[in-house]
Each structure stands twice: as C-alpha cells, then as structure tokens.
Amino acid sequence: MRKEGAPVPEVLIATTSFGAEDVRPLRLLEERGIRYRLNPHGRRLTAAEVSMLLQEADGLIAGTEPLNAEVLREAKRLRVISRCGVGLDNVDLAAAEARGIAVLATTEAATNAVAELTLAGILALLRHLPTLDRRCKAREWKREMGRLLEACCVGIVGLGRIGKRVAELVSTFRAQVVAHDLREDREFARVHRIEYLSLDSLLRRADIVTLHVNLGPATKGLIRAAQLALMKPEALLINCARGDLVDEKALAESLQSGHLGGAYLDTFSEEPYAGPLLDLPGVLVTPHIGSYTVESRVAMEIEAAQNLIRFFERREVA
Q1: pTM: predicted TM-score of the whole model, two decimal places
Q2: Distance CA 196, CA 139 (A)
Q3: CA pair distance 259, 238, nearest whole angstrom
Q4: What is the mean pLDDT of the chain?
Q5: Which tens digits make up the pLDDT trace of 35-76?
Q6: In the prediction, which pLDDT does 87 show?
Q7: Which among 33, 108, 188, 253 could disulfide-bond with 2, CB atoms 3.0 to 4.6 Å apart, if both were Cys?
Q8: Same domain (yes/no): 258, 304
Q9: Using CA atoms, how far apart are residues 83 and 308, in angstroms rounded to an integer?
Q10: Is the domain of 126 the same as that of 252?
C-alpha cells in the first residue's frame, strides 16, 4: 500500500487489451492506489496519440507504440515505462536514459508462447498444411509429400530464452540443432548437443532457419538477399521475432524464384502487412500473435503491473 500523504501516480496503459482476459493486473494497480487510464482507441497508438495521452502520466504500461525521442521529450512527468512484452525496439532507450526515465520489460512470460508458435509454424510448413487446407476447401483432393522434422537440421539464430526453448522442443522430435549467437552458452549447448556456427555457416547447413534475436542497429536487415542466397534450396525461414530482421522484398523474390521452400512470418516491418508475401502459396502468415495466448498474456500483464508498482514503491521509500 502507498504511504499516507504520498502523491498518487497517474499511469497510462497503452496496450489495447490490458485486463481483458483477467482483471488481476488492474486490481494490483488499484490496491496500490495507482490511478490508470486505458487506451481509448482500442488499437496501437500513433506517436501523436501517445504523446497527447502521456502529458499527465507519471508511468506508462507500454505496448508497441512508438516511444521516440520527441514523444519522450513531451512527456514531462513520465518517470517509468513498463513494457508489456520483451522487445524494447519501439523505445528510444538513449532518450529515456537522458531524461531519467526507467525502462522495464517482462522477460519470462512470452517464452513458451513464442516457442510453441515457432514449432507450430515449422510443422505446418513441413507438412504443407496451409496449401492442403486451401485445396481441400476448394474441393481439390490432391496430396503433397511432406517432410519429417526428425530428418531436418534446425538453425536457431539467437539462442536466448526463446531460442533455447525452441531448441528443447525441436530436440524432442530428434531434429539436429545448430545455433548462432554472439554470447555462447556452452553448457546449454553441450547438454542439448547444439553446435555453434557463424551465421553464414548456419544458413548454409540448416534446412529450417528460425530467428530469435532482438532488433537493433546490428540486427536490422540481418537476413537480406545475400543471406537468403546462402540458404539451401527448399529451406524454410521462420520469423516470430521482429519484422525488420528480414528484407521482405528479398524474401518474396527468393520464394518466387523457387530457391526457398517456404516461410512462416508472424512479424512484419509494417503492420498490418499488405505486401506480396500474402499472395505466395508457400508462405504462412499470422498477425503478430507470438505471445498472444491467455496464459502468457495474463502473466505478462501481471509482471508489467508489478514492475511498475515496484518502481513507484522504491521512489516512495527513497
């Protein structure tokens, strides 16, 4: 509980469905005497909208809305951003630090959801489920030969929390796993029989390449035409991380040429996505649902609320 006489924090909740599945995250804020305002638009906020709504806010529970230097400069009272999610690429971290704004994230809750979605995408592509579903619904009874995950080499780019969980899942299918990460966890690799490779070597060897790295200056456009050309003919590309990791135009061209066998994409550079990948038969797409399970969503919202509460409680004690 807040100390008597302490100022009441005002919080903007920018995510679109906070508390919709479970009211516990909102109750946590109410029990600590924190006043909150929900996103009034029911969609991802623009920079102008979030800037306007932040004018009277001391804290923000953030989604993926743009929190650039200009937005943060106008948020005179803002002292903490509690991101409901893992990625912080929508936040200008240097600008936040310069203004003394703490930036927090929910680090664990999305791991299983994203990893399971990645596995679902891999299996769907290996057995041509999107194509066969469309054929059957069009009254076309025509089969297509699939592949076993057991016979594949899975290349995981980014062996962090989510990448490791993907490795564990595909290993239960007896798939071979190779990985690329700048920070190598040798003990995990030894236990799970994972070989670390350079990015180029991984792309050349893997039948399935799945991306699980954060987005930043060093990883934006990580997979371009040159990298796609290194991949095996008929290889699959999976991106459940960040859209800007992949040059979408180059990916579409590689698929159209028949070099790649397919792709599963849950994230795009611009969302909603409306580009040429939607028209390609070997491409499976979903509308950024990586962490969008009831269990993960509730856990993320509770963690985001708790992060915010701890920040304000520390300030009261200080």
Answers
A1: 0.87
A2: 46
A3: 15
A4: 94
A5: 999 999 999 999 999 999 999 999 999 998 999 999 999 999
A6: 81
A7: 33
A8: no
A9: 9
A10: yes
104 lies in the same domain as 115 = no
Q: What pLDDT score does 316 carry?
A: 58
Percentage with pLDDT > 70 across the chain: 97
Known catalytic residue at 242: yes
> In Å, how far are 42, 64, 104, 265 from 97, measured between CA atoms?
29, 19, 12, 33
Q: What angle do CA 301, 102, 98 make, to 5 degrees?
A: 145
Confidence of residue 311 (pLDDT cuts 50, 70, 90): very high
- Indicate if the alpha-carbon torsion angle 42, 62, 297, 270 is positive or negative: positive
How many other C-beta atoms are found inside a 10 Å radius of the C-beta of residue 61?
Answer: 27
Residue 188 belongs to a domain:
yes
Surface-to-core class of residue 63, CB atoms within 10 Å of its CB (0-12 exposed, 13-18 middle, 19+ buried): buried
8 Å CB contact between 310 and 302: no
Total of domains in the chain: 2
Looking at 242, 248, 297, 301, which residue is catalytic? 242
Q: Is residue 3 part of a domain?
A: no
Q: What are phi and psi of 171, to 5 degrees?
A: -65, -30
Q: Which domain, by its residues, includes 20? A: 10-109+293-317
Catalytic annotation present for 271: yes
Among 270, 271, 295, 316, the active-site one is 271
What's the chain's length in residues? 318
Question: Where do we find the tokens 């924090």?
Answer: 9
Indicate whether 318 pLDDT > 50. Answer: no
> 83, 180, 288, 297: which one is catalytic?
288
Residue at token pair 């804290």 = 59
Indicate whether 158 and 193 sit together in one domain: yes
Mean pLDDT of 3-30: 89
